[in-house]
Amino acid sequence: MIRFYRYVLPGIIAMLLSGCIMRDEQQPAPVEEAQPTPQQPTQPLPPTQPVPTVPSVPSVPTQPGPIEHPAETAPAEPKVRTYDWSGAMQPMVGKMLQAQGVNAGSVLLVDSVNNRTNGSLQTSAATEALRGALANNNKFTLVSAQQLAMAKQQLGLSPQDSLGSRSKAIGIARNVGAQYVLYSNASGSVGAPTLQMQLMLVQTGEIIWSGKGAVQQTQ
Fold it and tell me: b/e for 131-169, b at 16 or more Cβ within 10 A?
């Protein structure tokens, strides 16, 4: 009997202990109450610093290459007309020297040839041709170009300026002591002008001879 208790009693104790352990494991663990999180003091935010503006670097424009222009055609030079003034004046001067009422040895003022055409006309060559046709005549003594230039200067005119009117030509002739004045002009078309001459008596302004002739171009 004693042996029985010796073996049974430890088994019963072991069973009881295991049951207590199992109950303890099945009981839920006590729930711990959540402790409130302490509030951190609010720190003021630092003032916002302005973001520095970085100046933009201007882009360098691409230099274009040299622009090639088409070759420009040079403007055509205006055509310079030349005329056979001597061919037109020689026969007219010959007729004038044979006119009635001309006293040999008289002083003659030859005015510059006036342009009365419908275009631009260089009359200096015509004036030179006219004076050349009268250079060796046996009736008139010509007023020199220097005397004529001085007389024009007294009137406030350029030495190359044509007197332009018969009255001015007669006034200049009186100032230089001429008895006759030869007034001439080129009229009509500039391509084929007509030369007109008038020999006038300075004292009365009377026209004692007149003539006209065509002027041919040489080119």
Answer: bebbeeeebbebbeeebbeebbeeeebeeeebbeeeebb
pLDDT band at 21 (very low <50, low <70, confident <90, very high): very low
C-beta neighbour count of 7 within 10 angstroms: 8
User: Is the CB of residue 116 less than 8 Å from the CB of residue 82?
Assistant: no
Mean pLDDT of 153-174: 74
DSSP state of 140: E
- Rounded CA-CA distance 47/170 in Å is 104
In this structure, the strands spanning 180-189 and 106-110 are: parallel
Domains of the chain, start order: 85-214 (3.40.50.10610)
Contact 219, 87 (CB under 8 A): no
The neighbour count for residue 190, using CB atoms within 10 Å, is 16
Confidence of residue 168 (pLDDT cuts 50, 70, 90): confident
